[in-house]
Amino acid sequence: MDNFIFGRYMPGKSKIHSLNPTIKIIMSFYFIVIVFFANNLITYVSLFLLCLVALRFSKIPLKFFVNGIKPLIILIIITVLLQLVFSTGGQTYASFWIFKITSLGLLSAFYIFMRFILIITISTLLTLTTSPLAIAYGIEKILSPLKKIHLPVETISLMISIALRFVPTLTDEAMNIMNAQRSRGVDFGSGNIIKRIKSLIPLLVPLFVSAFKHADELSIAMEARGYSPEMKRSKFKSYPIEHNDYIGMIVILFISLMVIFLRN
Amino acid sequence: MHKEIIFKNVDYYYQQNTPYEHKALKNINLHIPMGSFTSIVGKTGSGKSTLVQMLNALIKPTHGSLIIDEFKITSETTNKNLNPLRKKVGLIFQFPEKQLFADSIKEDVAFGPRNFGVEESKIKQIVENSLKLVQLPLDIMEKSPFEISGGQMRRVAIAGVLATNPEILVLDEPTVGLDPKGQKFIMNLINKLHVEKNMTIILVSHQMDIVAEYSDNVIVMHDGKMIKSDKSNVIFNDEKLLSRYNLELPSSVKFYNKLVENNIPLGEGVPLNVESLSNQILKSFSKGSKRNG
Amino acid sequence: MSSNNIIEVKNLNFKYENSKENTINDVSFNIKRGEWVSVIGHNGSGKSTLIKLLDGLLPIDSGSITINDNLVKENNLDQIRKSIGLVFQNPDNQFVGATVEDDIAFGLENNQFSRNDMNVIIDKVLKVVDMSNYRTHEPSKLSGGQKQRIALAGVLALSPKILILDEATSMIDPQGRNEILDIINNFRTDNNMTVISITHDVEEIKLSSRVLLLKSGMLIEDTNPYELFNSVENLEKYSLEMPFSAQLSRHLINSGLDIPNSYMDEEELIKCIKKLYLKM
Predict the structure, then answer these.
(1) Quick check: B255 and C248 CB within 8 A?
(2) B211, B283: one domain
(3) Residue C175 and residue B293: Cβ atoms within 8 Å?
(4) CB-based contact (8 Å) between C265 and chain A?
(5) Helices (H), chain C
(6) How many CB atoms lie within 10 A of CB A194?
(7) Are residues B272 and B132 both part of a single domain?
(8) Beta carbons of C96 and A218 less than 8 Å apart
(9) Which of B19, B87, B99 sits opposite A61 (nearest CB)?
(10) B264 and B167 in one domain?
């Protein structure tokens, strides 16, 4: 679990880190959309290369990154295997019972695999290089047109940033509670499924109790510091759009055009 | 069989081989005698809490080994069959009331013994004894652990650990957040377990008055390293050591030093509590009167 | 005209919806500008409820509270909360921002400070709490004492007239406690700030000039630390520990030394012991 990096933030000063968060989030989603347009080897490979370049610029060690997304590999492999044995067409290489391994099956399994890798890589890269606060800021900017229909966009963004700010606190707490119960003889993650689920109760109950306590006290503290959801607030953080943001946008636009032209 | 807890060249690295890697313990060598009252002191982040978790194999040494009686823990130790060790070593974490979860106090206290395979016929007696130890009235047994006061919740949590009848009791800041009366109660309880049941106590604390008053041995930690491990009077006599590692002197030692600065001769050896300070003052007074009278 | 009293509480009553009895029961007192007042009493004596009422975090049932010449009522809570800074017990539950500077900015954003002003103020208050090197740190990387100093900085950023500590030092280590109390004491004298602290800690009580004792929602004594430490019964009744000097005096008196029975702080006790020693 320690190596699992999906959804985590790694502070840094790289070119990727310093991109404007709003633009970074939009670019990541745009990239994911493009991934679904890719349908042949060359398009997948060019998208993969783009990921590698972005990863390089983020200065995150490749080995660390690969280790970090490894826990997701099982999920990918299962999906890929299902795709492999259930899709038919083309030449049949092997068959048993109702399963067949076919050339088209192999091909679509490979594409599914690539899609997974690309989407996981780009979204992990987004969270690794963007602080929770910046993500909340980006989401607020993206949602800001919805203010016109009276959606409390600023409140939502503050909620997201507070939720993200409490992730490490609650993770620590979960670890502590798990340790405390382990030393009272609980063996998490062993035995049959019912036993495993049962062993989660001594973890989840205290965690919920504590989360509610956090929320309760935090809301009082926020009110005492002059917060009120209806009120106008000024903004401390700003993220100007800079040179690199334009370069990033041009690159991704270029790649997307490439994918459109090179797809079958 | 070793009548000691032994740390041999123990290192511990959090998240080894990642950019988050952090060396929490560096080459720790320690002997903690069974039956002793040993305190671990040091600033936040000095590695105290990591050391404590290792005593229950919640984390394992990255290098080196830890020996507790017949148990040996190394990086190779698997997660199977750790319950005998965890039964031997009871761990009371900071804010232990956070681990309460069951519908009733009775069930919560019974949780540990049940996990360790104690027969159901003995559970009731164990629960009652444990609640008596922490001086809670037995009629609260059926109550939810969430509807009693904070101080009582902590006592229930401690009872839950004592119910497993550990030989070694490890406590991480057991008195934090309690009022002085509650603090005193907990410390008296721990001391009673040590004196009457001969329990080995390992206490992590920032409160030097408590450390000085109760412990035989003190271990000073700093930045993941073990700086010094010695009898408590030796440690608290070494003002230089304590100030170098930003540790406070106990009130009795501070007062002793002030008296000595004021040219009031007091005997050798610093007092570890108010009573011995008072005795030292009286002794120097009676010597003084002999000299003059 | 600004009166000499920064807080005036008159016949205050408050009852929680689901409880039978009043949690605050006909409480009246005044606090002067620049005073440091300790509020003590058992858990459940109404201390925390009282300060929530002062800050308008709970609605008053009857009676009145005046803060800095403003009556506490629904339509001027902004004013009230600007003049009061509150630091709570659990450092984790008042940290709103994802980093130190964001957290201090939170209160400033609520009061619509400009970005430039925020930066200046954040620099200033970080210096006050001696945390300038931690400006972009995340809360999970800080110790309890450091988090509490940031909570204090966030509150001082709004230059409150009154600082209220709700057992603010009870969850941090003694050294962290001493550091934060020093910071508060210095800031208070420089800025003529009024301090109210709810506490069980004698070191903290020693810093105050006045002590209010609450019991079952009633103000039963309005005294000072000397008087308080003088009466062993009171200390026991409120489950407070005796100050170290008082503990030592008692031991020495019990052993027959001729030491006055009234409370002396450490300096006075040392002088007294020295005098006795030289007389022999």
Answers:
(1) yes
(2) no
(3) no
(4) no
(5) 47-54, 77-83, 100-110, 115-128, 144-156, 174-191, 202-206, 225-230, 232-237, 244-254, 266-279
(6) 8
(7) no
(8) yes
(9) B19
(10) no
Q: Which of A69-73, A147-151, B177-181, C190-194 has the lowest mean pLDDT?
A: A69-73
Give residues with Cβ within 8 angstroms of C180, minimum separation 6: C129, C145, C148, C149, C152, C168, C169, C172
Facing residue for A217 by CB, picked from C88, C110, C138: C88
Residue C140 has its nearest CB partner, among A168, A232, A234, at A168
Give the CATH number for residue B115. 3.40.50.300
To which residue do tokens 């890697």 refer?
B21
Query: What pLDDT sits at residue C40?
Result: 93
Average pLDDT, chain B: 92
Pairwise CB contact (< 8 Å): A209 & B146: yes
CA distance A16 to A248: 9
Same-domain check for residues B108 and B131: yes
User: Which of A135-139, A141-145, C85-89, C253-257 has maximum average pLDDT?
Assistant: C85-89
C237 in reach of chain B (CB within 8 A):
no
Interchain contact A218–C (C-beta under 8 A): yes
What average pLDDT does range C170-175 have in this prediction? 88
Q: What CATH number is given for C5-224 in this structure?
A: 3.40.50.300
Q: Are B217 and B285 within one domain?
A: no
DSSP string, B197-230: H--EEEEE-S-HHHHHHH-SEEEEEETTEEEEEE
| ipTM for this prediction | 0.91
Interface test with B, best of C238, C251, C269 (most B CBs within 10 A): C251
